[in-house]
Design brief:
mainly alpha; elongated
């Protein structure tokens, strides 16, 4: 009998009145999301610069070899992809409190 009562006491759940304290720390800050959005705009702009009409069977379109479509557009898109890495990895530096000065060091010698 006594053993059964001990088991029941040990198996009793924790108090429900105590709230669990969980810290929700999100790894990215507001500045990270702004930088990521800028990178996404660069990528979209690069793909927009690469757009244009294609060749048809009847005529040849020389516009497919334009500098905008073959050089500028891909470079802008590549820049967006490359800058995405620092945008994700960026961490704001913590502000350090100013060191307190010693009163003895601030006394001016006369």
């Amino acid at each position: 009998m006594a053993k059964e009562q001990k088991k029941k006491n040990q198996a009793a759940p924790a108090k429900a009145s105590e709230p669990k304290k969980t810290l929700s720390i999100f790894p990215l800050d507001k500045i990270n999301f702004i930088m990521i959005a800028c990178c996404l705009v660069l990528i979209a702009l690069g793909f927009i610069l690469m757009m244009g009409s294609a060749n048809t069977g009847d005529t040849f379109n020389n516009d497919i070899f334009s500098t905008r479509r073959t050089v500028i557009g891909p470079l802008v898109a590549l820049l967006g992809f490359v800058l995405m890495v620092p945008a994700i990895m960026y961490k704001k530096k913590e502000a350090k409190p100013a060191p307190e000065q010693d009163e003895e060091a601030t006394v001016v010698k006369e």
